[in-house]
Amino acid sequence: MTDQSEPLVSTPMRAADTLQRPSFAMPEGACDTHIHVFGPLDRYPSVPHPHYTLPDGKLDQFRALMGVLGLDHFVIVQPSFYDTDNRCLLDVLERAGDIGRGIVMIEPDLPASELERYHALGVRGVRLDLFKRASLPRDQIEAYVRAMAAKVAPLGWHLQFYVPGWLVRDLIGFLATLEIDFVVDHMGYMLAEDGLTEADFARLLDLTQTGRAYLKLSGPYRIARQRGYAAVEGLAKMIVAAAPDRAIWGSDWPHIPDSTRDTGELLNLLNVWAPDAAVRHKILVDNPARLFGFGS
Hints:
- With about 300 residues, this protein is of the alpha/beta class.
- About 40% of the residues lie in helices and about 15% in strands.
């Protein structure tokens, strides 16, 4: 349990000037679609029992990183640290202006007027943490997803799924029926140690052909674990080959719990996964602009 009177902070953030520089020409309008931002506990209290101490990840630090890596836009994803208290995210969006967008976590009964206020500040989607609901009966999970889809569809928002890979596999047929855009985080989180197979991943790739599903090229260290980034290279290349118009990239900054991780190195993986500059432009610029409404 975190003692709110003692604002414990994780390892200090790696300085932007120590990051690898891009190994390819960064296109104008490039977007990091998956970051988290945090603030002081006395202003933005955590959930009662957070899974980690307060990370060192503030907007000013990320803005410095953007200058080094040639990023023009970003999307803040609400972390489990705050659950459905979106105040930190909304305050950051207000400060950032049109370069930022947000993905919130909400209670099912949040009034429509609040959703409209969030939209005006730059929110464009809702995050569904299905790790928390993974033990529920499948029909309850599907009912929850349908209810959230119906709630946010009038605003043109999308759903973002943070979900274990085995549950992604089990929900693929259901997800194909959704009439709203949705994103599956961290390349589907299909871990071999959880029993996921190449056939399961192939079905996930097929889902992108429905015209609603996006896959996020993010969190390679979450999937590779201790095996190194080469362990996920094949998966990433398959996503790029199968769905260049449905792939987006996210750094997962500030890389909880390892804030010393090199975000520039993660960006440069795209040069391996998507060596064609036109495809990288889709992943970094065109697809995020369409999904999050940059430039509109």
